Amino acid sequence: MMAYFDSGKTASTTKPLLGDYETLDEIDSVSSLHKNDDAFVSVESFEENGESGFERSEGLIVKEGLLRRLLMAVVRRRRRRNGLFGRKESGEFGERERLTSLNGRRRGWVTTGFLKEAKFYGHSVRSILAVGLFILTFLSILLTIYLSPYPPTYLPPPSSSSSNTSLPPTDLSTLTNNVTPIPCHSHNDYWRPSPLYSALRTGCMGVEADVWLFSNELYVGHTERSLRREKTFKNMYVDPLVHLLDLQNANTSTPTNKNGIFTTDPTHPLILLIDFKPSPPFLLTIVFSTVSKALAPLREKNYLTYHNGTALIPGPITAVATGSAPFDLILSNETHRDIFYDAPLSSLPSQSHPGFSAENSYYASTSFRRSIGTLWFFRFSSYQRAKVRQQVKDAHERGLKARYWSTPSWPRGLRDKVWRVLREEGVDMLNGDDLEGLKRVLEEERVRV
Prior knowledge:
Elements: H1 24-31, H2 43-49, H3 66-81, E1 84-91, E2 94-101, E3 106-111, E4 119-120, E5 123-124, H4 125-146, H5 169-173, E6 182-186, H6 197-202, E7 204-214, E8 217-220, H7 233-248, E9 270-276, H8 281-294, H9 296-300, E10 306-307, E11 312-313, E12 317-323, H10 327-332, E13 339-344, E14 361-367, H11 368-371, H12 382-397, E15 401-405, H13 412-424, E16 429-432, H14 435-448
């Protein structure tokens, strides 16, 4: 007893496809594995028509492998479902079957040679696989760019060049002329070719400096390996800010109501965000004390915003501590608090004690990636927008400014869309590396309003 392919031809060349079987039960056991594939002969059909109704198709033999046999079985099943029949012809790729409809119209080729030449209704299997591989590669590249943790090319790595205090006073005196302050925060500001000054020229109301304590000196850098002897907190931020404010207040004799950095709007303060890099707990007190001493030149000239225990006295510079900054030491100064805290935005509702308020904090910040999550298909879900809206509300109820860091930086279209949505939901300060991109988005917002 034998099992055959049903090709609807004469029995002159009938040969077994899968081998000899002694009983109908053995044939049934094989055909049951392919009961949904009419390319295999059923026991009932074999008994009804006998061997004369079935024939082995040339080229579809065991020696070409199980994968090949199964592929052609599917092709034959599809051919029958569409009312087609086969006619063998010879060509440059060997023997192949041309699928022809009952009215004689050509419907494509199915080769019986190697798998790489097989086609489904005119579409090469090799071409289909190549297109699929290209699509997967393209999506992988997009995903890699989207998840890339490296800073964009417009933000160069730290250099060993001297500090930016070498700019001539004539340039500094006109630095912010015709510059409109905008709610942007210069993330990792010290990485820029001209730290502090690049942000001020753009109009950014916030700059960030990461500080490390070594030998009673505060050095600025993202990691310990990027620190340089000349890149100190004093040289890069405190002294330049004192000099700029002295120029802005050259004609002001009153000890209070100092003019701010921006000539076009001197009432706007500049937010100096000081990121305390990780240190052992017993050193945080020393780091905090050193930061407070470093701010002394600004404090002595009444350039710092402070809380006197009953009221908030605004100044041209508002110093905010973030990172590993100790909140308890900020609270401990109840009579002249001029260093404020960066509260955790994502956990404000659960923080009942101690309470974060405008008396001890300025920002309420959190990581966008950890708090809001990934934007699948480059869009906010309704849940994500509602979460942003609620977090902003929690911050504003405490008199704090909402800010997100670690927002998407690439693709640029997604980055700009995230900034726009955050502003629509009431976020007070946009965090970013591309200052020109931030400025463009914020100017578009001002034009729309």
